[in-house]
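Re-running Transposase domain-containing protein to confirm reproducibility after the cluster update. Everything else is unchanged from the original entry.
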Amino acid sequence: ESTDYHVPKDSRTFLKTPIDVGKGLTTASGGQLWYQGIQKALQYHLNGLPLHKSGPTQLWPIMIQLHELPEVPILVIGIYCGLAKPNNVEEYLRPLTTDLNHILENGVVINNNKIHVSIRAFIADSPARAFIKGVANYNAANGCIKCKIVGRRGKQKKGLTRNLEVGNMLLRIRNTLLSKDSIW
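Result of re-run:
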């Protein structure tokens, strides 16, 4: 029996998937980076996550949230995809910092009104925060970003842990934080 209904051959027709989804991909830092850009945003979320358990592919999305408008969902403005985290944090964050510098300096025009935009927070878990700051990870020997204590590895019930002795701590100063030799 035949009908007059047209059934598409591909599910993307039903979903109205944009044709130019793959456009805008650039090679960056050993993987691929897609960056859409921002107009108004206050909170930035940066984290890495594995694409699936059995493979090395990772996604590092850049997301924003309009803090004063909680009904607006979190927006993805960029995604890095590679076999590991980006090997160059500057290359990974360059589109974002370029956008931010422009917006912080010039504001945003919405309905002929210039709106001042400010950054409220950058939100990242410990590994992403260490990556963004360019310091050793929290569980490394020099993992404390506030002092120069060298941690010792100790056995626990489930594997190893890093123990830091509390006492006479020599605090890191700005110059030592800028010198990667003292951190790594």
